[in-house]
Structure formats: structure tokens, C-alpha cells
Amino acid sequence: MATTTPGRAAASTREYSAGAVGVTVFAGILMIMTGVFHAIQGIVALVNNNFFVVGKDYVFTFNMTGWGWAHLVLGVVVATAGFFLFQGATWARTVAVIAASLSIIASFLWLPYYPIWSLAVMAFDVFVIWAVTMHGRDILRAGEVPVGK
């Protein structure tokens, strides 16, 4: 029987779920891909200001150069968070949720420029947030379980 000190919870003896690890790995891959896509959109916006076109009546209008830099920086942050998500660290999961949330906001504001793609990226980000918050610890547990077990 495990003993605990006051104020500390007993260590979890629950084994990891291989399916949950797969979902978390998939979320990390989606984050890396989404980050690369954001970075590519940023580079395109920086190189060619006239590539993205928006109608006159949209409430949110932005300078393409500023938007390009925002997407480029956000893309690097999201891809980096996705890479470190494979480590299973709590800080990486926290950064992943924050980065995916920022990506959802950026994609929502990007709707008039690329509507279908923005909706797809928002769906990816919602999946990432769900996977990381529900199954994030299982990837860490998978690294602790002996191979022969």
C-alpha cells in the first residue's frame, strides 16, 4: 500500500492507454503541421501582399505585412509546442493548449482570406486541445512502462 505525505496525492498506478498515446502523438503531429501551415501563410503574406484578397465589407481588415509576421511567429510557436508535446511534459501540454488557442483566434480572424482552410485549422486546433487535456499524461506514462510489460 502506498503511503502519502499530507498535501500530496498518491502516485497513480493506472497503466497508460495505447490509444490515448496515439491520440496525443497525432495531436503533436497536427500541431507541427498547423505550425508549418501558419508559417507558410505568413511567408506568402510577406512576399506577395496581393496574394490574399478580402471583400470590402469585412469588419476585420489587416495590413498583410503585419499579418504575415503574426502568422510566421505563431507558426513557429505552434510547431515548437507540437514537437515538445512528444516529451509529455506538463509545461509542453500547457504551451500546446495556449498555442492552439491562439491559433484558433488567428484562424478565425483569417476567415475572410482563406475561409475553408481557416475552418480546417480551427478544427485541428480543437482536436489538439481535447487530446492534450484528456490524454496528455498517457504519453509520459508510456515512457515509464518497462518494455517487457
Automatic annotation (TrEMBL):
Entries under InterPro entries matching the protein: DUF7144 (IPR055568)
Q: Where is the DUF7144 domain?
A: 24-137
Statement: the UniProt record of this protein carries the keyword Cytoplasm: no
Answer yes or no on keyword Ubl conjugation. Answer: no
Residue spans crossing the bilayer:
21-47, 67-86, 91-110
Record key words, sorted: Membrane, Transmembrane, Transmembrane helix
Q: Report the protein name in the record.
A: DUF7144 domain-containing protein
Source taxonomy:
Bacteria, Bacillati, Actinomycetota, Actinomycetes, Micrococcales
